[in-house]
## 1
Amino acid sequence: MNIATPKRMIWVDGDTFTGWCCSLCEWGVTAPRLESTVAVLAFNRVAQESFEKHGCDKHTCQSGHA
């Protein structure tokens, strides 16, 4: 039985990248430095919308993201 793993939006906080990524491919959105909660919530909403629209097949797959 081959069960597909659903993609998940994950937060990455590293030396070279901080932002939202896909658990299955190299899609990502770099987080800007934001000073207010309202701005953070707006960024997260836009990142979520972008994540939902992206296709993993258009990005090189990468293991070990999560």
## 2
Amino acid sequence: MDGPYSLMPPSGAPEGSETFARELAAFIAPYLEEHEAVFGGLWLDSIGSGRVACFAAFTDDLAPHRAALDHRVQVMAARHSVDDLEAIREDVRGFMERYDGARLREEGIDDRENRVVVGAETVEPESLRTALRERFGDLVTLRVDVFVTQLAAFDAWSLESTDDGEELTAHWLGGPGERAHRLELVEADRFVRVTVLFDRHEGAPAMSGMDMSATARLTEPLGDRVVIDATTGRQKPRYASPTAVAFDDDADWEEVEPPLPAGPISDAEMDASGLRAAELGDAVRAYVRDHTFVYGGMWTERHAGGVLLCVAFSEDARGHRAALDPAVKVLRCEYPVWELEAMQRDVVTLIEETDGATWSQATLTVSEGVIDLFASADDPRELARSIAGHFGAVVRLVPLDSPTHEPTPTAFDAYIADGDTHFLGVVWSEAAGGPALLRLDEGPDAVHVTVIESRPLPGTRPQSIEGRRAVASAHLRQALGGRAVIDATTGRTMQPLVLPDGVAG
């Protein structure tokens, strides 16, 4: 039964509740129509033990209603009649149409709360909440989709001439939950500095892969001025086509997909393809030893025709492709891994120095060249602005209502390193199951290593997993050489991990 006297069973109501709701609504509707001026709401609610009860609210003396209605109806007091709330609802629509800075998504009447409910999208929820309270008092409840203003690093730019001048467009990969993309331009004699801003829904996942763009008009023709990304401080290339972007040091660079069968292939063939990718990974790791400071990470992609090994470099990607097996997919990245690791440590330090902010996890996603920071804060919007100002789009903030993990210094058992490389790994047992990062304090005679393990808080996941071994790694500023490795948590000088065949790891 639709209309002002319809009933909807609550979530999880027992079987038969819909029939009960229809029959009860049909029974009570004539009475409510007679008392429309004082009717304040009608709803069903769970009352425990698998039972559902009906509630009807009125603004006048409740005794006559209790005497007149069936025992199945619980009579409640209401401050406002539904007619009064409908009038307020109409006023709210007009108010939201005139309000600058928010978009009305939905509005309605909450019978239980005896209020008008407004659903809106805004980047300033407190300002909207204050304005509604000043206009309507406690008659309106605001339910907000909060959007946080963030910065984005862009990949390339394009230019279009119009009757009103030249328009510059920035292009980048974004994700769901983004809106209101816009550019801010600072024009100088030799360059144009471009800042990309957008509003992201706080609940949206930190993802990318969707083509995004934003346009702004130049005050003067671009001419031979260069275009600078204000977020990263780097010069950006002109957009070549939807599938190929010309980069500074790889003018004709374009990604090439190594040949794979069209697929689908059998499980046995997929397993064999995975083993082949692992073998290629060993060869790539040996190659990367000599290219530490441009290495951007390695990962696999599973396709219908097999497993593809991918590796990224921040410079001379074309040269690295020529040097590696043709079955390896070589990509160009913005930042090498060592630089991402440094920013990972820096953003954690920033959070620790920010009042009212706590970080739970900081994970490095090399396949996207970003750091995903899971953090809670008294003012998440201000934290997002601070992070964007320091790190641009490299750090993706995932806001949390409350901490889920506790970063904890953890002792480790051994380290993995070769004296002539810049790679250092550490191993420990009985891991807490959360991600970890390394803090390195390098001196002339020793490297002090602190393992920070994100341990799940009680009620989320097991605090430890017996027998589990964990590994974390980082890049040194200079090769380890003969320096000692010291566990900063215990103060002990550690030994290298020795593999079963007696070869140092």
## 3
Amino acid sequence: MLQLSLEQTTRRALENPLLRTRWNVAGSSTKRGHQIVISGSDKMKNRDDGQALCVSRAAFERADGSETRGHDKRLLISDYARVRDMTGSFWRSHKPTGSVHVHLVELSDEEILGALVGIGLAAYAFRNFVRERDEKDAQVQLSISKDKGPIERELIDTAQAIATGMNLARHIANLPAAVANPDALAKFFKKYFGARPGVSVDVWGVDRLQKEKMGLLLAVGQGSQWGSRLVHLRYRPGGKGSSRRRASETRPLAFVGKGVTFDTGGLDIKPASGMRLMKKDVSGAAIVAGLCDFVSRARLNTPCDFYLPLAENSVSDRAMRPGDVFLSRAGHYVEIDNTDAEGRLVMADAFDVALTQSKADAPEALVDVSTLTGAMRVAVGLDVAGFFSNDDELAAEAEQAAQKMGELAWRMPLVKKYEKFLSSQFADFKNSSDSGFGGAITAALFLQKFIRAKDPRAEREIPWLHFDVMAWNNSGDGAMAEGSNAQTLQILIGMLLRRA
């Protein structure tokens, strides 16, 4: 088995050219190397030699077919997303190396942000197993300028933070499960974020999880040699650059990401075809970690808590069995109907930790991300993130951010009548439905049983948003290559930027 340092290989993977770019340098100063003009004008014609790219809306429609209209414009491609994807696709196709100068012409600030993020996303490659010689040959010395005045520093900082957070999330989910196991990831997050200004890290191992009576998270990991972990990344703003809004005026937002580092299905084992990509079942935790990376780099003034429940759903003589009953941290007894419905178990215990924080740390809202059900993929396909919410305002906020940030998302119904499919005569309820229909809905209804905290502003559940995602490209698409695509991370970023 390959012995790799997760910290070292992740650092190599995040060597993004945006972080070492020379900004606002005139193109004439680059005497040698690749010169690229990216223009929003229809007068610009694409060139086969990779020296010119037109990213106008008309050019996009010619290349990509007619845009999706209707649906209250919720699926309409934004200027940011259009330029991000066109620039990223161009960068992936031409693979510029060495000295490269990019000049931006007739682009709005939103389009410039898209171009910069597109370059940052396209530049990421999974390089853990690439020879050092090939890696050196692929390095880029990048300079960027625009036609009218300098590029604003805030645009540069935001683009760098988005691209780096996205690439961190993608890289974690791309890693082999033998490398990114619960123990290794917990140690990595503690070191990676440990010295980050505004971020504190707390890791709960098996002993602490037992003390906290987190029986569901422990049950999923009990069949693996690694056991289970819970990582809590706590971000509290302060210092220079985070004065846009007083942090004391708002309660924190809580984010929970499913971190099943590999999912065999357990004793209800998956077929080979269904298990092939199950290293990506850590994607929810990777996305939430990427969000923490973005928030702390951008120094947003919104306090946030990020919870990463980590476990490997393995097959062994210690693995949980169908018919077993476990006690959750919230006090619910849960019968295991199917061991392959494990993601909702790790999430449920993490929900309870997030929602039982005291006083000023009690969350204003809870958002979760998980690769939870195949049923959602049947419903909306691979490119659309289905989501559920108990709060119309929070759902509308997610829809607006999804459209602006260019990530397709669609709200699904919480049909209370379907709760009957989770009933159990041996426990308070079971972890999955055997009806064969509405699997994404019953999974969401299971999670909603753990949204027990009350919003102090009203007698209702705390606002909650649940994303059920694929989080994987089966082939290159836009700015991103085959592999993890950190689906919904840009939606969450967009939501936080609106609050900043």
## 4
Amino acid sequence: MMNQELARAFARDGYLRLNGMVDAAACAALADETWAVLPSHWRRDDPASWHGEVTDSCHAASVDQRGGHLKYQMKALADHPSVVTAFQPGSPMHAFATELVGKPLHRIRLRGLYVVAPTRHPHQNPAAPSPHLEAHPAQIIALCYLEDVAPGGGGLLVWPGSHHAFHPAFRSKLDYVAGERLADVYARYRDLAPVELPGQRGDVILIHNRLLHSPSINRRRRLRLAFLCDYTSLDHTELCQQLPGSDPFEDWPGVKRWLGDERIEPARCRPWSWWQRLRHSQHARNRPSKSRAQSSINKADASNLVRERRPGDVWLSISDSPKWFEHRDSLDPMGSNLTAAGIHTTWNGQRLQSRSRGDITVRLSDVRPENRLEIQGIDRQLWVRVLELRSPFSASRRLHAAAIAADKPTVVLTVAAPAEPAAISER
């Protein structure tokens, strides 16, 4: 299926749309799985029922407050028969991704079922709500439409050619380790308009991991249903530890095999037209107020924290959520506002200020061979960990972990530091 024309398009644009890649039966089965986890009062044939507060895998908020975007990330879905036959090793999709990258790939990294519901006031939502890059290592992100998606129906937005600018702006080939120029590249693309990618049931959109993209607002009376997964090479750990060059395909022998020495000029995004810019700024001003639910605040803070990580950093996290302690390599806040509750911390005698509004999350600067952590104002069960970040970030390790009961208002812990910090190689 792979050919020179597709390789050239992917190198130029950073994305491919593969029409009819997944059969109708598999799409229907995954659509049924989606409806099974949507709110019980939602009915397929009644758009008026698609409203109210929704709790997905990330947080709880109303449909309007979240711009209609829902994520359901269930691990068991990786072994669903439709996912196995359509996306896992042995499937045509996995074979295509392997040929595109040009090296052996893992089983898919499951992202889950992604829904974009129409909001009650779509005119109050911005046209491009959250342009971003993925914060985890992967070469390819794959999005499969489970039903037809018309223009304006919540299709994926992409900034063609942006992978050429973003790839060298990081300090890791695959992990999200921001370089000095990353903020400038983001700023440049804020003035450029994205391209909307509608599609038919079974179409799969593949994007390069450094391609700027975003969900869009659904202005139709139909849910946008999609399945999302990632393809990652077996050598991803080594690539995470290497600095990137200027070529976003420097470690893609599959693309290189088709293109040879041909130089591909990246696609160029068009500037926003005057009416798009006016519309976008008005929508941003008129956007419904964000939910003040703690889960929504935690989600926003988690997005910021994941982009502050650096290999070799040591972070302190304290939470009152038992669920949080199960996420071994995550800095995501999941509990309540501990600072507002009167819980304070010092590290080697220095008062700490949390980087998140939920839990207490702090990057530690004064790290010694032996460190003194004091927690004051304890009035509830707490879970504590000190995490040394490594590359890839999934390989980060706990330097200290403890559960603290609510029977003592002050607890002092001794934490040993790592012997050697993690680093990114110059290869």
